[in-house]
Predict the structure.
Amino acid sequence: MKKLFAVLMTMIMVFSLAACGGTDNKDDSASPKTDLEYVKEKGKLVVGITDYAPMDYKDADGNWIGFDADMARAFAESLGVEVEFTEIDWDNKILELESKAIDCVWNGMTLSDEVKAGMSTSNPYCNNSQMVIVPADKAAQYQTIESLADLTFAVESGSVGEDEVEALNLATTPVKDQATALMEVAAGTSDAAVVDSLMAGAMVGEGTSYDDLTFTVSLNSEEGEVFGVGFRKDSDITAALNEFFKTAYADGSMMECAETYGVQAAIIAQ
């Protein structure tokens, strides 16, 4: 009987030690990773974008290019990971980040109060303003904010452009992105659009994709607007990107990329 009791006690101790060891292992594996460790472990930086020339758009072969796309690719390379671009619903960009469907929003994003409240944001890297787009043959009629009262505006849902138009109590037609807003005006289904100045310069006017459209009134606020990149709240990748921006500006690669896409005048010194 004593022998049997001793065997049972030995077995209980073995199972107890195994259980303790299993618990310890579980704790180790469940230890929280930083955002940077998470990205490096999976081997890719997933970048949320929309179709927005000259920042993010596709070339003839279907590859994403543009100032933001090229800089994001270079930043991912500096981290030792691949880059993956995914088109997002701009209105849901914060939810996309929080769900880890994407790792950052890098798409000519204005650093609005809403954005800064919902994301960890980089230092500003580019200036911006909001421009009214109308058919070129009607431009003379719409040279002041007061003259816009009867127009219906195609605006990207969730964008600063939408906020600016609604603040003026003007009629809006929300669309998925700024490229679609331009298409609406070109097709005559909307009277006007509001898009970022960089897109207006690249896509509207003589020699562009929309040579029958032009920009007139700027809706920019007095303090102006700046672009930044958004990460998850408290992400340590934000600091890494700020250092990357400083290095890229100092070595000239940031300005070279900006010149390629015609945005050099808008780049902010780092």
In short: The CA atoms of residues 28 and 38 lie 15 Å apart.
